[in-house]
Design brief:
about 500 residues; alpha/beta; dopa decarboxylase, N-terminal domain; Aspartate Aminotransferase, domain 2; Aspartate Aminotransferase, domain 1; 3 domains; 7-stranded mixed β-sheet; 4-stranded antiparallel β-sheet; 14 helices; 11 strands; about 45% helix; binds pyridoxal-5'-phosphate
Length: about 500
């Protein structure tokens, strides 16, 4: 009896039944719609100081349930003042992060199903939709068949959380494979061998590539790029030969397609020929630029991709899929499985081996149902819709580029290929630094800088799917206005 009374009391405290959820979710949907409808009017970069939020909240969680209406009201009071509006049409920093209504709906469903799909039996749909969606997506990009599961080879795709994880997974697999082969050749392998392993990438590679080297305990050499900031085969070959002479063991190369500082492109064909010559693993990091390959006219930028062992890009950057969704393909999945396979009894199941158990393809055990986002987005946009999105954003970048070129006070750092414009005033670094500072302080637009060979420049990335031609004009007007102020002082 005591127990029943207790349960009734608990029931009163457990908030949000289905009817309350219906009302709250419709309120939330209205809020989201209003957010997008008015996002242009919000200051893109917030003005709060570090620690701003603690002062707006009680010092501990409530003892008794709060009202939903109070929580809704707190979104504007507590959260929005401290939000950097990544989907504002005036956000031009970093690279884009994807966002679309179909992807938001898919995440709602994923949260409702709430499965943890580490093995096939842990939720067959979660694994199987991912296998098929990675094939759909690989085909949309025009990836060679050896990356696709449907082609019947050893290849296939997997959704990782981020490009950083994909690089690390590829490097760890390459390392495990290299050590396995060395042990087969020399059973009494020198215990110091792992410390001799070395990997290569360009001086334009993302910081996560260098970090993957640190995490995997493999030296990561950053090789100097050419005048177009592109890694070339000859420089790579030279570095490898030098290292081999020193007794080091080259195992792995990361080629970047659309590097973060200035969206430059490594020469994959040349690099691929070198990795074949020395039997090294080639991983391609196309985190940003990969989305552009849904358009045939940009595929020349990944010429030579068939020489790669693994390829990765982020649909969560430029393909309208909400974070997180990083698409990775590998030509030989057993390289991953053999590197990361441990098989406790509680994770074994009868269908093992017939379908991927994605837990072997990644670092964590648990995984969300992220392929729903790809399914909804690819269906709701279709190939043509996705192509239109990319082409529009590239056109907007060219619009901004043309403004820069028409003004003799400015220069372009690297010709625009996709959605990023790198530019600077023909003045020293300090002047450009103060221009960037003023632009961000103005709150109208948001940009971040970059530096190559000690030359500081500004990066204008077309990010939000809501950005229109008028917004690019607004951005340029703001650049002109702040330029006047900066030049007056100098
Ligand atoms: C953004 C970016 C990354 C990092 O992406 P995450 O998914 O955040 O890890 C890696 N490489 C390149 C070229 C990038 O542009």
């Amino acid at each position: 009896m005591w127990c029943v009374r207790q349960l009734k009391q608990i029931a009163r405290l457990t908030k949000m039944d289905v009817e309350e959820f219906r009302a709250a979710s419709s309120q939330m949907t209205d809020y989201i719609i209003k957010y997008f409808n008015t996002i242009r009017d919000r200051r893109v970069l917030p003005e709060v100081e570090p620690g701003y939020l603690r002062t707006l909240l009680p010092s501990c969680a409530p003892d008794t349930p709060d009202e939903w209406s109070d929580i809704m009201a707190d979104i504007e009071r507590v959260i929005m003042p401290g939000v950097t509006h990544w989907h504002s049409p005036h956000f031009h920093a970093y690279f884009p992060t994807g966002n679309s209504f179909p992807a938001i709906l898919a995440d709602m469903l994923s949260d409702a199903i709430g499965c943890v799909g580490f093995t096939w039996i842990a939720s067959p749909a979660c694994t199987e939709l991912e296998v098929v969606m990675m094939d759909w997506l690989g085909q949309l990009l025009g990836l060679p068949p050896q990356f696709l599961a449907a082609s019947g080879g050893k290849g296939g795709g997997v959704i990782q959380g981020t490009a950083s994880e994909a690089t690390l997974v590829a490097l760890l697999s390459a390392r495990a494979k290299a050590l396995r082969l060395l042990k087969e050749k020399t059973p009494n392998l020198d215990p110091a061998t792992p410390s001799k392993l070395v990997a290569y990438t360009s001086d334009q590679a993302h910081s996560s590539v260098e970090r993957a080297g640190l995490l995997a305990g493999v030296k990561m050499r950053l090789i100097k790029t050419d005048k177009q900031f592109s890694l070339r085969g000859d420089s790579l070959r030279q570095a490898i030969l030098q290292d081999k002479e020193q007794g080091l063991i080259p195992i792995f190369v990361v080629g970047t397609v659309g590097a973060t500082p200035a969206c430059s492109f490594d020469n994959l064909r040349e690099i691929g020929q070198v990795t074949q010559e020395f039997d090294l693993w080639l991983h391609v990091d196309a985190a940003y630029a990969g989305s552009a390959f849904v358009c045939e006219e940009f595929r020349y930028l990944m010429d030579g991709v068939e020489l790669a062992h693994s390829f990765n890009f982020n649909p969560h950057k430029w393909l309208l899929v909400n974070f997180d969704c990083s698409a990775m393909w590998i030509t030989n999945a057993s390289d991953l499985v053999e590197a990361f396979n441990v098989d406790p009894l509680y994770l074994k199941h009868d269908q093992q081996g017939q379908v991927p158990d994605y837990r072997h393809w990644q670092i964590p055990l648990g995984r969300r149902f992220r392929s729903l986002k790809l399914w909804f987005v690819m269906r709701m946009y279709g190939k043509h819709g996705l192509q239109a999105h990319i082409r529009k954003q590239v056109a907007l970048a060219h619009q901004f580029e043309s403004y820069v070129k028409e003004d003799q006070r400015f220069e372009i750092i690297l010709p625009v290929t996709l959605g990023l414009v790198c530019f600077r005033l023909k003045k020293d670094n300090e002047v450009n630094e103060s221009l960037l500072k003023k632009l961000n302080a103005g709150g109208v637009i948001h940009l971040v800088p970059s530096k190559i060979n000690d030359i500081y420049f500004l990066r204008f990335a077309v990010c939000s799917r809501l950005t229109e031609s008028q917004d690019v004009q607004v951005a340029w007007q703001e650049v002109l206005k702040q330029t006047e102020l900066v030049l007056q002082k100098n």
